[in-house]
Amino acid sequence: MTVAPFALMQLSSGLFASKTLAVAVQLDVFSLATGDGITVEEFAAARELRTRPAGMLLTGCAGLGLLEKDGDRFLASPLAREFLVPGTRYYFGDFVTMLDERVYAGWMRLAEAVHTDAPTVWDSTQRDSLFDDADPVTVRTFWRGMHSLSTYTARAVAEAYDFGSVRRLLDVGGGGAAFTIELCRAYPRLEATVYDLPFVCEQTAERIAEAGLSDRITCVAGDFFADEKLPGGHDVALLSSVLHDWSAAENQVILDKVAAALPDGGRILVAELLMDDDESGPAPAALFNLLMLVETRHGRNYAGAEYERWLRAAGCAAVERVPVAGVSANALVVGTVARPAYRGAGTQRSM
Ligand SMILES: C[S@@+](CC[C@H](N)C(=O)[O-])C[C@H]1O[C@@H](n2cnc3c(N)ncnc32)[C@H](O)[C@@H]1O
């Protein structure tokens, strides 16, 4: 035989790895496993577990590269120390928890979503979108999870794109402020506005205060569908993981309003996990696309060419793509707003 089913074993048992990680995060294994590490007995005693499942969980984490074994002690691997110990700057555990507690029940009904073309993570007979629900549990798990997913990507964006000449950034649907906090840390002269729904702004303001950036980052509560105008006074607008939640027509409405809120020469940055233009992948974008099926009514992970088309239709003359080595975005699509007088005589607006 020229092929073997190892890849299929890995795909079909992906849940084993995902649940092992989620339970390890829930029991905060990785804080215990820093320093001198832990034995199975110490872990069992610390979390009031029997030694059999305690040992199985630690061994599972070791098999996944999250713990390293030294004699009878388990130590957090570099990956776990960097991203899975609560309180670390790029802590990823809140995203793991968000998927595990909030999203995976909906993924278990993926077949239903494929048949009905309706989301399965939340009850679409009761609400219009996942953002209609301001209940405290959803707010806490969703936006903490988004911050956790986005913060490393925000650093990657700060490295991939030069914000040195930017004075005021508008973070449209800025959520947990992962991008504004990280960009303001990387660019000390930058000031920013997070524009998001009122109940999101309440908790985001707390996070900005914790980061010590309340003097440079302001939250403005609003709704980009209901509001006629978005806040002005910015030279760059960022939309990270926002447009994948909506249909093509809704995205054009949002981008038209964003462009109208910027001056001539202002820039719109779209950060997304872009699908290849021929929609053949890549896998992270293609699977996030299915996440949009179970989470949204009309959202999708779009190809870069589609964002480029909408940006041009919103009045951007120059549009470029900048690769980003992030987990929630693999590229920025950047459009520069050019109003007719600014573009100069004879320049046609292209679609
Ligand atoms: C998937 S999250 C992305 C958050 C953030 N940009 C990030 O990358 O971490 C989408 C954001 O859009 C916000 N949003 C949804 N509908 C909105 C609306 N009508 N007006 C303003 N913001 C909205 C949500 O509250 C949420 O924070």
How would you explain this protein's 3D organization?
With 351 residues, the chain is an alpha/beta fold. The protein has two domains: 14-82, Winged helix-like DNA-binding domain superfamily/Winged helix DNA-binding domain (Arc Repressor Mutant, subunit A, Orthogonal Bundle), CATH 1.10.10; 149-341, Vaccinia Virus protein VP39 (Rossmann fold, 3-Layer(aba) Sandwich). 46% of the residues lie in helices and 14% in strands. It has helices at 6-12, 14-26, 29-32, 40-47, 51-63, 78-83, 93-107, 110-116, 136-160, 178-186, 198-210, 248-260, 283-295, 304-313, 340-343, and strands at residues 67-70, 73-76, 168-172, 191-196, 217-221, 236-240, 267-272, 316-323, 331-337. The strands form two sheets. Strands 5-4-3-6-7-9-8 form a seven-stranded mixed beta sheet, sandwiched between helices. β3 (168-172), α10 (178-186) and β4 (191-196) form a beta-alpha-beta unit. α2 packs across α7. The protein is globular. The model is unreliable at 345-351 (pLDDT under 50). The protein binds S-adenosylmethionine. The site of S-adenosylmethionine has 18 residues, from α9.
